[in-house]
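ok trying this again, last paste got cut off
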Amino acid sequence: MLANLHVWHLRKSPDSGRLQGSVGGDCLSFETCQRWVAVACDGAVPPTGLFAEHYEGVAAYAFMLRLCCGLESRLVGETEVLGQVKEAWAAFSPLRSRQSLLLAPIFQKIFEDAKTVRRTHLQNLGQASYGSLLRRILSQAPLKRPVLVLGAGSFAQSLLPWLAPFDVHVSNRTQSRALALADQLQNPVVPWEQALESAATLPCHVVGCVPGGDEVLRLRLETWARQAPRGTLFFDLGEPALWNVAQPLPEGVTRVPLEGLYDLQKKEESLEPSKFSAHA
């Protein structure tokens, strides 16, 4: 079974655009904040996107297991990626295509093994979550303000429970997804076209969980940043980034990219030896 498995992978970089090309129609393909992935068994139309890596057989299974355990992530051991993979599989499996039927037992085993690995080996890895780091930064912000989350995909869904202590508003291009997420977590919804205008009026810190590339959104973001008062935080968590990194932010707005969360985790990890030595 595993001998027939194929995985194609492309890791995003901060300056990368959208994946050029497309994937075969019978592959399971999905995108996370850090990568593009296509999965299939023998007989599938190979993806035509510019994937940098191709794994076969046991190596393909091992990659997917590492991915679901957060061991391929820059924030090692993070939990959000498993939800993103499960969401992609939940959308693909009901198609009842040949590929979905072939992949079903493999993904069942991947999810079971990922749960075992996390429970057995990763429980003491620390608060390996983007949401925990995001909440920590917001809690330490000098000015306590509402928080606007842009996006309602699996990444945004994984962040929202961590933001429960704050007054959180949700906005998404597809209004129905924002409403479904808001109903689940009891957060108010802001129409997409008015989201950043509302964020400037309230004012709000902004958490961007969508990738860049939308010119209209970029212009709205620039307008919001010019109007935002001093002390405003903008978490630019999509890759590619929402903000044009070559353009300086207006004074008073601090941008925190994904790299900023990684740096926070590394800083905390570097303090661990001193914590233990203090009690030696």
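PB: full thing came through this time. Confidence is low (pLDDT under 50) at residues 271-280.
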